[in-house]
Amino acid sequence: MELNMCFSATASFVAGGILSVAGAATMISACRQKLGCGLIFLSSFPLVFGLQQSLEGLVWLGISDQLSLRLLTIVNYGFIFFAFFYWPVAGPTAGFLIEKRKWRKHLFGGLIIGGLAVGTYLMLNAINHPVLPTSSDEWGGHILYLQGMTLIPNIQYIYFFTACTALAASSNPTAFKFGLALTASFLVTLFGYELFVLPSVWCFFAALCSIVISYDVLRGKTVQYLEEQSDDLRAIV
Question: What pTM does this model have?
Answer without folding.
Answer: 0.85
